[in-house]
Every structure is written in C-alpha cells, then in structure tokens.
Amino acid sequence: xxxxxxxxxxQPEEFEQIHRLNYKTFVEEIPQHHANSEGRLVDKFHDExxxxxxxxxxxxxxxxxxxxxxxxxxxxxxxxxxxFLPAHHSICExxxxxxxxxxxxxxVFQGLVRSMANYCxxxxxxxxxMTGTTRQLKLYRHLGFEPFGPLVGEExxxxxxxxxxxxxxxxxxxxxxxxxx
Length: 181
Prior knowledge:
181 residues, alpha+beta, Aminopeptidase, eight-stranded mixed β-sheet, 32% helix, globular
C-alpha cells in the first residue's frame, strides 16, 4: 500500500469510483440493493452528500459520507426517530461506509473517521446517527457509536440504528490525535 490520501471527493472520476464502490459494497457484498448491468450504484441522496474518501494512487479505496438534511434515510426506516435520540442541537447522518476488501486495515478506517470528525467539528454537529451493518457492530462501537431502536432492513441486509454523542465524538478525536503523534 502506498501512502493514502484522505480528502473530500471533488473530481468527476472520484464520484464515478464512489458509485462503483457503493455498488460493490451494497449490492454484491451486503445485498441491500438490486444488481444492474452497469455495476454502479448512485445513492438517492448523492447531491446532498459530502463524501470523504481514501485514495491510494488516485483510486478510491474507502468512503463515508455525511448529510444534514431531513428527512434522513433513518427517518424513513424508524417511526419517530427523534424519540430514540438524546438531546442535541445539530445533527447529521453518516452513511455509506465502504472500504475495498484489500484495504480493511485500521489506518483506512482511522483516516476516514478523522476526516469525518474534522468536518463535524467545523459544522458544529453534536450528534451523528447512522445505520451500521450487523456484521460490523464491534467496529462501530469501538468508534464510539451507541446502538438504539430495533434492527432495520431486509433479512439478508440487517442494520442497527446507532448514534454518537458529542462526548463520544470528543473521545474519538482524542484517540485519533494520539494516533497522529
């Protein structure tokens, strides 16, 4: 692996690679969406997402995105989402965490999380929500997310609603700063 670059996606070729990684992850690996002949999946909130990517020699090898406009995708899966959440002032939803199989190592996840943490800090969010695949609950808890509510999704693609508070976010920032030193 060469040195990785973590950044906000901005180039057309980065977005095309995002759509292909999205397909590979959420159609082929986690059967959440139907297959198509193009081998690409454009998220329904694509135009509202801010994508954070990990690049290895200009190849997108990891991604996660944030969105702060309601209704969130989780609003559409849970009735009265707000009744499950702790008090907050500003909320965003993390979505589409995907990493190419050959790059599922701590530094990729840490870099994506660090990029997301810096963004959240700059936007003043004090709560983040997401649905995490039940296959990776240990990872999400390690990152500081707390599960809430019932599982959502279809039998072959189950997801746990989760949130991260400002306190957990601050702890995560401290841990990622230590990793940088």
